[in-house]
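ok so i was messing around last nite and threw this chain in just to see what happens. nothing serious, just curious
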Amino acid sequence: MEPQSGVPASAPDTPDLEEPLLAPLLRPPPHATANGDGGGPPVVGLAAAEAKRIWIIGGPLALEELICYLSTLICFGMLGRLGGFALGVYTLAHSITNITGIAFLSGVTGAVDTFSSQAHGFKAYKAIGLVLQRALVVSLLTCVPLLVLYAFAHPLLLALGQQPHLATEAARYIHLFAPMVPLHAVNLCLYRTLASQGATMYVLAAGTFFCAVTAPINWLLIFKLRLGLDGSALAFVALEAIYCMCLIGMCVLHNWRRPPAERWWGGWSRDALRGWGPFLRLSAAATAMVICDWWLYDLLTLLAGLLPNPDVALAACGIIYNINTLVFTLSYGLSYAMCARVGQLLGAIKPRAAKLAGEVGTAMGLAVAGAACLILLPLRHQVAELFTDDEAVIEACSALMLPLAALLISNGATALQSGILHGCARQKMGALVNGIANYGFGLPAMLLLAFYFREGAAGLWWGITASTFLQAAILQTLITRFDWQAEAERAARLVHHLSSGHLLTAAFSGELVAAHSAEAVAPLRVRGL
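result:
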């Protein structure tokens, strides 16, 4: 690649995505580095200001995640009125679609978080549109084998040892649910593009309308038209299509309201066909990171189907899973904000600010999770009654609230830590840690507690809780040893390659350098970007 004007000839053609995964452990502590990123504890005033900035981005996202998941709970609750068997079918069907479609798509689109936030921080706005185009192509192509897989859902469920009557109904549900998958792929790309730029009120507006129409559509299809389980699956498809239209409208509005020089969408471009290497590698790492985490939860559901009285176990685990996800949406929204904030600061060559954002965000995640536990535990019976009137299921749910509370605390930390890794383009590191903690420790613990020690569903949830605490401890150890100056330089190289060099050239040739402090940019130039 021929050097562009304004970019030193020593700039690498491709960014360094192949640094050893555990390199942070091999570096000296941050306070010992020459760049001064770790020169002392953050001033309380700076931390408070950073917390406010994170909340400005993360508050609307957390609320939007909560609203959208409330719509899922509405679907779940209305279906629960059909009985415990319907809940079991729903839980089993969604476990399969989560293990395959939703998990893979969430991972494949994970590169959008990193590249778009860093490009936004670097003021390389056109690169954001190129990232979106690449993400749409990759995610829609990913849907093709998934839809083929869903066509064979019935034999797959039987091969997994599920009871024939559950397998038959769950397979039918999956077949009707399948059109939702490509719609979800598009929605993930649009959502992440807006969130990575901090355009969170646009996302919130789309989610609010989506939630507002959830109950009427479910009531119409499940009860008014008497479609039952079929109506529930079709309602998910209809709602996803509505959400897609809302997000498209919000993206158009956001782009139109930006100053001409900051508009990130200028139409489809051939430039999107170049620079695929880093995008695909980061997408693969993000996919591995997501599925290592998500699959453990869905394996829990499949294992619950093998316990004595599987109908009750599946229904109880489905309710606990939904409560966990409901509370986790708050941390998940903050995680997106964490990724956007860290990515933008690294893209803007502000490593010390990125480090502070990571520290403050992790503390915020723990605080939110702790507050949720204080509310949930005293109301464990009442919470279960919101989902079902089956006494056996209610008692089973109440017994699982204690391990759930412990899980929420550890998830509060790992959610924000994952956001930091996404902002730094360190998804490969996250995938390795998730794999070790979840499958080297968590899954064996779940099997031993649930089946060998006969703790049943409680054993499954205690096992997954233990693995999450281990995951949080390892991630925190790695993050505290990051060299944030090196992360900022690496982010600039990523944006350079992502935009085929053109946008970075413009940035270094004029206005952007003036926007950054000479102290921040000088080390980057010396090191040969």
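not much to say yet. Residues 310-347 form the longest helix (38 residues).
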